[in-house]
Amino acid sequence: MAEKMAMAKAINESLRRALDTDPKVLIMGEDVGKLGGVFRVTDGLQKDFGESRVIDTPLAESGIVGTAIGLALRGYRPVVEIQFDGFVFPAYDQIVTQLAKMHARSLGKVKLPVVVRIPYGGGIGAVEHHSESPEALFAHVAGLKVVSPSNASDAYWMMQQAIQSDDPVIYFEPKRRYWDKAEVDFEAIPAPLHKARVVREGTDLTLAAYGPMVKLCQEAADAAAEEGKSLEVLDLRSVSPLDFDSVQASVEKTRRLVVVHEAPVFFGSGAEIAARITERCFYHLEAPVLRVGGYHAPYPPARLEEEYLPDLDRVLDAVDRSLAY
Fold it and tell me: Which of 31, 130, 142, 276 has the most CB atoms at less than 10 Å from its CB?
């Protein structure tokens, strides 16, 4: 039951399966219905399941998430789409003060099984507010799960797990990887949603990444291998909660760690990983934990984004600096 498909298609198939198996699953968002989403991730779903299950909403992100909260209180499992990463901020208040807090506020009596889908990151030549990486803002908020797949198989299964979760999940989709293809086994037993995975074994240094940067780290490991360096690549998959045990196990083996993400390095998720692994692995590390990411500046115009985004040279430079200690 395996099929090779693009990540966008895998998410579409996962949403289709959820709609088909659970009548309480709803999809909401701007242009998700008749248009099928700007990236066609929800293409065909409204035609097959109707306008009461796949709902085109007004351009009002706060209203989209607020409505999803109300529906979840009535027993539904809404999956809402924020059309682009930079559009999420009108809904930020609803997400962090209502969606994230209701379970604790009700002493565990109320659950809000809402999935917030956010296409994020750069690499597609988009205009302002269409290429940001705000995952650390949500990971900082207790009560939210924050995940990001790096390939079609994970995209399919992590969406299934996110929809089935009784806690709200912020599901970041790396838009530059929407068209990357991989095998998806529809009968597989998926790994736990928040479990990291070693995608390449190595002995000299660990590269840890998630979402769009996992592929770049694999390319860096290939390039380093030509120079006789053995790099382990760890796909974190989840930003909150984060599988520190797997990171620790890898670092205890390789004794070096470079964390790579598109988001700015300053106060990014890599900072928490660096601090925690330094605490856990102090006597194993042979070099400080290094971070590679975006700059502490607004995301630039499209013609400059390749200067802003981490690339192969910047990752390999961090590898060389770490190995030089």
Answer: 130
Instruction: Tell me the CATH number at 208.
Output: 3.40.50.920
Name the catalytic one among 103, 130, 194, 261: 130
Do 207 and 177 lie in one domain? The reply is no
Mean pLDDT, consecutive 10-residue stretches, the chain (325 aa), reads 95 98 98 97 98 97 98 98 97 98 96 98 95 98 98 98 98 98 96 98 98 98 98 98 98 98 97 98 98 96 94 98 97
Structural domain includes residue 147: yes
User: For the chain, what is the domain count?
Assistant: 2
- pLDDT score at 1: 78
**Residues of the domain holding 243:** 195-322
Nearest C-alpha neighbor of 190 from the set 213, 163, 159, 218? 159
d(CA 271, CA 274): 5
130 is catalytic: yes
* Boundary residue ending a domain (133, 159, 183): 183
